[in-house]
């Protein structure tokens, strides 16, 4: 699938979404706003940083989760499916978004949750998903690994299966619409957090080659960089490798949130009024600030930081987390 074909497909999908009254009424089809960030560090280093506030798009579907879901919803509808089935952990922003979006468009939803010791009352995320009509199925970690690998339990023709985190080709295409094309020329670099890499791939594929894309991995190890290379090759990305995956800012690995990171998130919120989550955007912003401080992001650079949300799941962390 070439980049040209992908951008054409994105335009067609966007037009189709505009014909869905429930989605138009929800406000989810609006473009995220872009705000200027005023921090002394950025001013001192002469680096301009703006933030794309995908977290403000909707109060209940946070950030990039919607962009990975919307074309899946569209395809499910066009295939005549009545049920969405997906996977996630106890604090999954993805399952939370699937449950709400399914309710909005009149579909059923099923969530396969990792951890058979859990139940619908284990936390507010699961409670809300159930309240929105999601049928929750709690499975052992071994069963969860097998089902996410094999595509889940046997599903009928009326069930649309979405991988964990919304990470499939439709999710990548959806993330290609995350940054409005009209703002491309305003920036030298685009920064965002990286988990599965679905969002980063979509952003890289949609941006001109001369705009550098930097992903901050929240996962331990160097493999996310190798995985991103493979992803882009699958999408026939043959432009110069104007992207990077920073693997040194994971703070101990996925879900690990030391006190120093929580302090950074709290201080950033106090100084800017922008809430960050400690699992994704907190680590990404901490990385950007470090690179600016060290002069790796040089003076005069224009940066767009994508706030990918995650604030629903951030309720699972408190100031005592370490």
Describe the structure.
The chain is α/β, with parallel strands linked by helices and 322 residues long. It folds into two domains: 3-62 and 174-316, 3-Layer(aba) Sandwich (Rossmann fold); 64-166, Rossmann fold (3-Layer(aba) Sandwich), CATH 3.40.50. The protein is 39% helix and 17% strand. It contains twelve helices and ten strands. The protein has a six-stranded mixed beta sheet with strand order 1-2-10-7-8-9. It has a four-stranded parallel beta sheet with strand order 5-4-3-6.
**Share of helix among residues?**
25-40%
Content-based structural category: alpha/beta
The CATH C-level name of the largest domain is Alpha Beta
Radius of gyration: 19 Å
Counting H and I runs of at least 4 residues, what is the number of helices?
12
For the sheet with most strands, the description reads: 6 strands, mixed
- Please tell me what the overall shape is: globular
Give the helices and strands, then pairings.
Layout: H1 3-17, H2 21-26, E1 33-36, H3 40-44, E2 48-53, H4 64-78, E3 83-88, H5 93-104, E4 108-114, H6 124-131, E5 134-139, H7 141-150, E6 159-161, H8 169-175, E7 189-194, H9 198-206, E8 212-217, H10 223-234, E9 243-246, H11 259-272, H12 281-293, E10 302-307
Parallel strand pairs: 2-10, 3-4, 3-6, 4-5, 7-8, 7-10, 8-9
Antiparallel strand pairs: 1-2
Helix pairs in contact: 4-5, 4-8, 5-6, 8-9
